[in-house]
């Protein structure tokens, strides 16, 4: 359809989308170029829409993908480079919904959360699904020398890439199932997932939805939302999963905070290897 007529669409593969090598413009993270003929040109699409249509607007896969399509936005020809793109994962979410015939959150519930008994995990789907279920830890964001208290957010703009609400215990279940066993992927697919390529971004070496950077702390992924940071790693040498959660984010020091979390994982791995 016209809404999915993104640049180079005939050259984009599922593998390239998973590995952020498809060149799909990241509508949710990057400022829309001011050269496009759209009212949101030169702005972040999320802020433009919530300011004009309300903070509980439900962002959809077609809507977000259409922004890249109608404005002919892309970073490069598929396979030419690496650029992290949540909108690429919106395309993957669309594929899942079309093949399964289910809404994305329901598919995850049926195929993963229920079988793995991840009973404290949910995936908000609508713009009105902003409240974090109780009990929960309040998030804090330091932004422009102001400390903001956050316990709700419209995450419908990140349905297939950034909208999980969970607990460290549930996330440890997921890490073990995905990385340490064949519950999710067989050995062949697991090997493909962790076969990373070097990138020119903070992600270092990146596989199929999987970071291998820094290499000495194993593989997994980081996650950030306003007021929250999370690191999930599996260290194959010690056969151990590590989950770190922080409910304070310094907007100007996010990378430094994530590096500190990596160091904590590193120290924990060393302690395990020493038998402590």
From TrEMBL:
Gene3D superfamilies xref list: DD-peptidase/beta-lactamase superfamily
Residues of the signal peptide: none
Record InterPro entries: AmpC-like (IPR050491), Beta-lactam-related (IPR001466), Beta-lactam/transpept-like (IPR012338)
Limits of the Beta-lactamase-related domain: 7-250
SUPFAM superfamilies per UniProt: beta-lactamase/transpeptidase-like (SSF56601)
Record PANTHER family: BETA-LACTAMASE-RELATED DOMAIN-CONTAINING PROTEIN, D-ALANYL-D-ALANINE-CARBOXYPEPTIDASE/ENDOPEPTIDASE AMPH
Protein name, as recorded: Beta-lactamase-related domain-containing protein
Organism from which the protein derives: uncultured Segetibacter sp
Phylogenetic classification of the source organism: Bacteria, Pseudomonadati, Bacteroidota, Chitinophagia, Chitinophagales
């Amino acid at each position: 359809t016209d809404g999915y007529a993104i640049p180079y669409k005939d050259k984009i593969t599922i593998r390239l989308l998973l590995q952020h090598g498809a060149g799909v413009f990241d509508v949710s993270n990057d400022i829309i170029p001011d050269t496009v003929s759209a009212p949101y040109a030169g702005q972040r699409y999320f802020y433009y829409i919530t300011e004009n249509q309300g903070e509980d607007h439900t962002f959809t896969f077609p809507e977000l993908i259409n922004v890249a399509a109608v404005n002919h936005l892309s970073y490069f020809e598929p396979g030419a480079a690496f650029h992290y793109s949540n909108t690429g994962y919106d395309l993957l979410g669309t594929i899942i919904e079309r093949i399964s015939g289910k809404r994305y959150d329901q598919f995850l519930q049926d195929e993963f959360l229920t079988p793995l008994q991840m009973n404290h995990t949910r995936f908000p789907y609508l713009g009105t699904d902003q409240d974090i279920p109780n009990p929960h830890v309040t998030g804090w964001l330091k932004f422009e020398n102001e400390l903001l208290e956050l316990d709700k957010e419209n995450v419908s703009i990140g349905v297939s890439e950034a909208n999980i609400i969970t607990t460290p215990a549930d996330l440890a279940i997921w890490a073990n199932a995905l990385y340490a066993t064949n519950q999710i992927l067989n050995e062949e697919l697991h090997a493909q997932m962790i076969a990373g390529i070097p990138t020119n971004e903070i992600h270092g070496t990146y596989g199929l939805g999987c970071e291998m950077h820094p290499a000495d702390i194993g593989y997994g992924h980081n996650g950030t939302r306003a007021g929250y940071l999370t690191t999930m790693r599996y260290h194959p040498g010690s056969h151990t999963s590590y989950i770190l959660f922080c409910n304070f984010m310094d907007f100007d020091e996010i990378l430094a905070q994530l590096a500190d979390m990596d160091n904590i994982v590193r120290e924990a791995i060393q302690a395990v290897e020493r038998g402590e």
